[in-house]
Predict the 3D structure of the following.
Amino acid sequence: MKDKKTSVAPCGLDCFNCEIHENNLTDKLAELIHAKMGVPKEEIACKGCLRQDGKHYHLPPEGCATLDCVKAKGVEFCCDCSNFPCAFLAPTADRAAQYPHNMKLYNLCRIKKVGLEHWTEEEAGQIRKKYFTGKFVVGKGQAE
């Protein structure tokens, strides 16, 4: 992908690493989603939060409240807000194994600390990989 930086959601999700992002979606996955959920195939590929204004089949019809908040406050990322972190970013155990939303706070903190360019090029892929395949060690966090 040419510019990963434009495919990072204000909430810290790395859209460019998502399996339904237009650059990553396979025909096999599109067929599975279509068959299981009845979503028309042409609506499955996602261009990323910003390019789709927070509207996609997996979101409520009114769009994303977090994106609306970021726009209203005039910040680029939630971590730029004086109210960071807020309830929009609260992690939850519900479907945490399927969705990377619990990574948002960590991603935003890393973006703030190391910068967007370094994070997109060097960290984002490994963070997602470790989230879904790594093991958690009490008192140590992620195991190597």
Observations:
- The chain has a mean pLDDT of 88.
- The helical segments are 27-37, 65-73, 104-114, 116-133.
- Residues 4-133 form one domain.
